[in-house]
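Notes to self, Transducin/WD40 repeat-like superfamily protein:
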Amino acid sequence: MPRATTVDCPGCPPLRALTFDALGLIKVIEARGKGGGGVPKVVDRWGDPDASKGLVAASLIDRKIDPLLAVARKNGVIEILNPLNGELFFSVSDLSNDGVRPEDNAIVGLHLFRKQRLELASRSCILLACRTKGNASIKTIGMADTKAGSGAPKTWNVCASGNISFSEVDGSESYALFGGKGVEVNMWDLEQCTKIWTAKPPPPNSLGIFTPTWFTSATFLSKDDHRKVVAGTNNHQVRLYDLSAQRRPVISFDFRENPIKAVAEDPDGHTIYIGNGSGDLASVDIRTGKLLGCFLGKCSGSIRSIARHPELPVIASCGLDSYLRIWDIGTRQLLSSVFLKQHLSKVVFDTNFAEEEVKHDVADTATLDALSIDETVGETEKPPTKRKKSSSKENKEGKKKKKASSKEKDGTKKLKSKKDDFADGQVSDLEYTL
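result:
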C-alpha cells in the first residue's frame, strides 16, 4: 500500500492531483482537511500494471462542466478518460505505418484543446500529438466513434533529423513549441501548420568549444504572450528566448551540473521552477537569471515533471524516486510527500477539487454550528421543576419495583413452606405404612 511521509511536513491545503507512472497506472491523490493541515493520500487507482502501456504524456481539460483527460501510452494508444472517476470514453491508436516500433517512436507531447472543444459538439474533442521522430498531427475525434476520428487530420513533420523531446502549446492554443536532441527550439503556427521561428545556437565559448544541441524541456513564460520561451538543456543550461528580439537566447545560465529535466512557469510571468537529473528543485527570476532559492529537502531521483497550482501557492514535483512531493512556493518548504512505488512521468492538478472541498467544509461547519446552537437553546429552555418531577416519578417507580420484588419474595417463601409441609406429610405417610 502507498505510504505518506509526514515527518517535518506541516501538511498541505485541500487539493487533488493525478500522477502517471511507467506501468501505465493513474493514481488519484487527495489532501482533505481545512486549514492547510491535510495529508495527501492515494484515494483511487485506474488501470492495470503493464510496462508496455506505460504513460508517456497527458493533458487535462480542467473545467467544472464536462472535464476530459487524455493520456498517451508507450504502445501508441491515446485514451480519453473522465478525470473524476477514470471512466474510459474511447481509445484511438496513433501508430504510424513506417515500420518503426512504438517504443522507438513514442508520443512525447499531447495536448487537448479547450477553446475548440467549446465550439464543437459535446461528444467530440481535438488533440495535438507529437512523436519522437517529429511526426505531429491534429485530430478531431468523436467520442461516439471508437475506431476513427471525424474529419481529416492535419499532419506535418517538425524536424528533418534528430529526436523530439517535448512539445508545448501556448495559452491561446495558436502556437506550439518543439525541440529535442539535435533539434533547435522552434515554434509553429497551428492554424497554418507553418514554422514561424527557429532558435539559433549560442556561439562557441572562449576556447572554441561548441556544445551540441540537446533540449530536454521548455515552456511559455506567460499564457498571454507566446513570444517569450524558457528552455532547459541536457548540458545543465536554462535559456530565455524572446521572439521579438533575436534568435539567440537573451539570457543563459547554468544550474548545477546535471541535465535540466523539467521546467514550469509561474502565473506572475517572470518566475520559473526548474528540476534536474539529480533531484535539485529551484525557483529562478528569469528577468535577471537570479536564483531565488532551492527547495528544502532534496529529491532522491531525477525530477521529470513540475506542476504549478493555478490558485494555491504550491507546486508539485515527481520523478524517478517514485515520490509525489508538494511544496510551498513562498517558503520553499516541503509540505508533504507520498510514495507511489513506480517511476513517475507526469503530475497534473485538478483545480475544481479545492473549490468543492472548501465549500463542503464551510457547509459542514455551518451545520455543526446550527446544531450546537439548537442543542444549547433546548437545554436552556428546560425548567428545573421537570427534572424534579421526573426524579420523583423515578423514586415512585423504584418503590413500586421494590414492593413487587418483596411480594415475589413472600410468594416464593410461601411456596417453599408448602413444599416443606408436603414433604413432611410424605414422610409421615411413609412412617405410617411402615
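- The helical segments are 115-119, 352-381, 384-433.
- The radius of gyration is 35 Å.
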